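S1.2 Input.
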Amino acid sequence: MKRIAILGAGTAGTMMANRLQKSLGPRGWTITVFDRDNDHIYQPGLLFVPFGDYSPEEIVRPRRYFVDAEVELRIEPIAGVDPTKKQIALGSGETVDYDILVVATGSRIVPEAVEGLTGPGWQTTAFDFYTLDGARKLAEKLAQFKGGRVVVHIAEMPIKCPVAPLEFAYLADAFFTKRGIRDKVEMQYVTPLDGAFTKPKAAAAFGSMMADRGIEVVSDFLVEKVDGERAVMTSYDGRAISYDLLVTVPPHQGSALISESGLGDDSGWLPVDKHTLQSRHYPEIFGLGDATDVPASKAGSVAHFQGEVLAENIVRYTEGLELLPDFDGHANCFIETGYGKAMLIDFNYDTEPLPGRYPLPGVGPFTLLEESRMNHWGKLGFRWVYWNMLLPGDDLPVDHRMVLAGKWA
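S1.3 Output.
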């Protein structure tokens, strides 16, 4: 019996395991998924934990609940991968052979990569919200915060969910306003980019909203070090920013397992063809989601759209057929803007976010590059879709390719 091994039981790996079980399980293929723990975190929910909108318990569930019963799920650490022998070495010393390997190991924050960040002040005056522990401790800090300078900061790109720092800034503005202390809070949005976002039209829209809410955008800031004792962050060009509360998105890397096994680059990203998602070095290895080096957003929607393409390509690979270059970099993201509203952007490798209606041209119900309450409800409603449709590998009524219908150039 032939085996497909999937490294990682997060969003991408779980979805892929369930899709492949439906297509290749009946053909005699065994699907095995590996992960180091049994906690599946709904990562979009981490944004809401600091503000008390979600509790940690609401966004964590056992991985076993979402993996098809016919799929083998193994919860144990992986020591390494030997791509020449097509073997996975487990922490127990056992080795597992594979015929096809799917790398869905995601990404991780490495705050220690910024000099001084994890020194004095870490999780006292400086926090992340990209981990459950960080989001929980930031919630405790915000609950007793009385005022001062709040700096929302991105260390470098790429990061998971590139719009999440924007959302945090908007939600913090609304949070402080609701508590009646917004006039006591000075806010800055500090980014290594030349604007609030990577795409011009979206950057203009987000930047304008920042200005309207009294949030200063500090661009082209490449952080060199953080002095936690003085509560000062310094850039390589010598600029210094002081803070009372630093909410940072630390540098990201792929899994150390990938680089240490010789599968990826020094940062742990797996090099794949950006359209087929096949490894550029090993034809029987494929990448999915945040784990790859494709120049697309590291976001859940991207993993979903990639998953539709990759599931088909793996089936074609088993049949000896040419792979389809069908992934176009499609991403769409809801952006919470506070006060019960949100925006939505939809883009791909070649086309930046445009205004319009989505997913039905001219109808919506969601608006693109425009605030609406419907977008906010779409963001909140996605949690149900995630647990009940996306992870099980069901087809959603959204094309994996970006379409221009309904968009206004």
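S1.4 Remarks. The chain has seven helices and 24 strands.
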